[in-house]
Amino acid sequence: MSAFLSGVAREVTRGGDFGWLPGSTALVVLAVALVAVLTRELARGVLTPEREQRARSAAVVVVPLLLCALLAMGARLVELVT
Amino acid sequence: MTAVPAPDVQQPDDAAVDRRPELVPLLAVGALVVAEVVVAFGDPVAGAVLHGLLLLGLLSGWVAVGDRAFLVLALVPLGRVTSLALTPESPSAVAYVLTGGPLLLAVLWQLWALRPERPWRPHRTTWHGVLVALSGIPLGLGVYALVDPPRAGGVPAVAAAPLVFVFAGVLEELLYRGLLQPALSRTPQLTGVLLADLLFTAAYLPTRDVGLVAVMAVLGLAAGLYVRRTGGLVAVAVAHGLLAAGALALWPVWT
Q1: Confidence of residue B18 (pLDDT cuts 50, 70, 90)
Q2: Left, alpha or beta for B99 (phi > 0: left; psi -120 to 50: alpha)?
Q3: Helix, strand or coil for residue B153?
Q4: Is this complex's ipTM strictly greater than 0.90?
Q5: Hey, which residues 173-212 in chain B have their CB within 8 Å of chain A?
Q6: B92/A contact by beta carbon, under 8 A
């Protein structure tokens, strides 16, 4: 995880040069998670059995992404309230 | 009864069919490296958007084509968007847990799902495996002395060390050498080692530290070759964990 933690990540969190879009990366995560879930729901029942099974197994990525989105948005809400 | 002649179906170009599965994951790796470059040297928010689009594309590729490399590659943008969205201001050890939590869940889930075809031998202890694992201690001191990375503070070093060990060291090895390397191993076999190391090195680009990036590229290549040759994923995971715990949590306090 040291690879994923860096000064750049902290710069974004702090605002720095990117203050014009506070929390924008959290919104990106939320948008990606929503698109992934919506695509899955729209494709339900339309896919072949093999693809349907693969779509189900994509949960290994989508569920952690949703967890990340919840944590990010939760952190932003706590920040706004306090 | 006469045999029914086979219908005259136009056969696709075999070479094109064979090349396609090799080429598409290769292009995906290239796109992920570009996204890391954008995060590191361009606009991190644009990089996050690019990573998000790649994540969706890789998931679609997995569902449409069924090449497991797509599903495994999707963990790279997941790790990056998670880090950009959740990293706190200060370099604390808790940040590793917060930022690494979703990625660790995804990596362990995929490892569990891939259990029947995992290419390493986790229960085999060898003398060279012990040696490789322990090499993380001097390597950690070396990285700390050469690069002086930010200390994982926030909690006492004794508490920070195990967190960094798991979330910085073990997690990265499980992702890059445990999942990505076998998923990207095609013909020739060395492809997986090189591509996984390329992604591993690219993940360090946002540190903007040439020395650290170079050191991790060499160590990543060595780890990949060792895992490919011996299956000793546990040894390199322990080595990386000791390296990270030493360089980020222990050596800054002890020296």
Answers
A1: very low
A2: alpha
A3: strand
A4: no
A5: 200, 203-204, 206-208
A6: no
pLDDT digits (tens, 9 = 90+) for A24-65: 888 899 999 999 999 999 988 899 999 999 999 999 999 999
Other Cβ atoms less than 10 A from the Cβ of A44: the count is: 11
Number of Cβ pairs closer than 8 Å across A and B?
173
Nearest CA in chain B to A11: B89
- Cis peptide bond N-terminal to B44, omega within 30: no
pLDDT 10s digits, B32-43 = 999 999 999 988
Q: Which of residues 99-158 of B touch A (CB under 8 A)?
A: 99-103, 105-106, 109-110, 113, 149-150
Instruction: Please report how many Cα atoms fall inside a 13 Å half-sphere around the Cα of residue B33, on the Cβ side.
Output: 14
Residue B70 contacts A where some CB pair is shorter than 8 Å? no
- Whole-model pTM? 0.86
| pLDDT for A25 | 83
The span from the CA of B204 to the CA of B24, in Å, is: 24
